[in-house]
Amino acid sequence: MRCFRLFLFLLIIILVLGLSLSSPGFASTSDNEKEEPLSLSEAIELALENNKELRQAWLEVEGAKETRKEVWENYNVFLRQTYIPGADLYVSVPTGEDPQGLVYVSNFNWVVEERNYLAKVDSVVAEVYKRYYDILQGAENVKAKEVALCKAETELYNAELRWRLGMETATALQGMRTEVAAARAALEQARSELDLHYAEFAELLGLPGGERPSLTDKPAYEPLVLEDPEVVIEEIAENSPAVWIAQEAVRLERYTYGMLHNYDVDKAELKAAKASVDVAREEMRQLTRSLYSSITALQESYTSALEALRLAEESLRVARLFYELGMSTRADLLAAEAACHEAKINLLSLQCQHELLKIAFYKPWIAGAVLGTVSSGDQTAAAVP
After folding, report:
1. pLDDT of the residue at 104
2. pLDDT of residue 56
3. Residue 173 pLDDT greater than 80, yes or no
4. Taking every pair of C-alpha atoms in the chain, what is the biggest distance, in angstroms?
5. Alpha-carbon distance 77 to 188, whole Å?
6. pTM summary value
7. Which of helix, strand or coil describes residue 355?
8. CB of 127 closer than 8 Å to CB of 369
9. 76 versus 208: which is more confidently predicted?
10. Whole-angstrom Cα distance, residue 49 to residue 324?
11. Strand 37-38 relative to strand 89-93, pairing
12. What is the percent of the chain where pLDDT is above 90?
């Protein structure tokens, strides 16, 4: 009896180690996905050329410019610097041909449309980064799910062998079949998500439907190090479109002071416009500080993620060696390979997120395009009717 059990044990070991030639597998989809190479800079160029919203925004800029030109031609008036009692400011008062200040309003509308257009350009560029990185992460996720499925199928194959020899329970076998079904479903979901990422990317760039270019760039991790973060945050907030446009609105109030209302009304409106500048500035400061905090927190976890990948790659190297020497099973090798893929996904996710956060930090008004949220500062100003 003891010899018979030893024989069964050796038979199972031989069958398991021979699975590298007979275990079920599947074809990778990576070969089908590779078409024309596409760099990040090329993707940005295509998006800027083909984006319909940008075209519309530029037409609005041109329209505002033509309106401004027409108004200035119709109201070519002499403007005189005049001191306004009680307002403590000088304004350019027209001679009477432009009593409603249309010259100033048309100029304001033009500069606002122009600044809104530039903000939209920033948003499109940021969205290209996000969609590009979504595909990189999605492709890596598909590879990981393929390995996970292969691992689950191999373990099921081994369990079926043990069950036939009376060394595995039906309950355990059914559990492994459930794991295979779950792994197969996870792979299909990952592939569907990757298909969606490619479709969204193609639409953003104006590419034909179904086109899946081979992406050539990877996110480069460069830590954000600032000697004085508050100085940088203040500069970013001051140069944001929301603050800039609010300041232009203050100028418009000053230029049209006393044209449409009495001085008391305009004085109150001027005060409100100045307050709007402070509100926009503070909102942008808070958003930028929040982004900076997210970046520093991510940078603290990057080293550990990098070390985790190094350890996973070393474990995979050892697992391959043991497998080649016949000292471990294919399931052991696939388990090490799956762990390595998970570590790669984690590191790639951190790299992509870090790069997107840096983009949003320096231009927080496009945070919604890269982070999937709409902030209070991610707004465009409306022209004055």
Report:
1. 84
2. 94
3. yes
4. 117
5. 69
6. 0.81
7. helix
8. yes
9. 208
10. 53
11. unpaired
12. 65
Planar angle of CA 212, 217, 218, nearest 5 degrees? 110
Nearest CA among 239, 271, 235, 254 for reference residue 108: 254
Half-sphere exposure of 223 (CA within 13 A, CB side): 11
Angle (deg, nearest 10), helices 102-164 and 52-74:
170
d(CA 358, CA 346): 18
d(CA 76, CA 81): 16
- Does CATH number 1.20.1600.10 belong to domain 28-371? yes
Residues 6+ apart with CB under 8 A from 23: 150, 153, 154, 157, 330
Residue spans of the domains in the chain: they are 28-371
Among 14-28, 63-77, 240-254, 325-339, the least confident range: 14-28
85 sits in the region (left: phi over 0; alpha: psi -120 to 50; else beta) called: beta
Tokens 């990948």, located at residue: 309
Q: Which of 69-73, 273-277, 348-352 has the lowest mean pLDDT?
A: 69-73
Report the alpha-carbon distance of residue 33 to residue 31 in Å, rounded: 5
Q: Most confidently modeled of 74-83, 217-226, 376-385?
A: 217-226
- The 3-state DSSP composition of the chain as helix, strand, coil percent (nearest 5) reads 75, 5, 20
Decide: 256 and 353 in contact? Cβ < 8 Å: no
Q: Is 184 exposed, middle or buried (0-12, 13-18, 19+ CB in 10 A)?
A: middle
Q: Say yes or no to pLDDT of 82 above 70.
A: no
CA atoms within 13 A on the CB side of 90: 5
Residue with token string 């990757």: 194
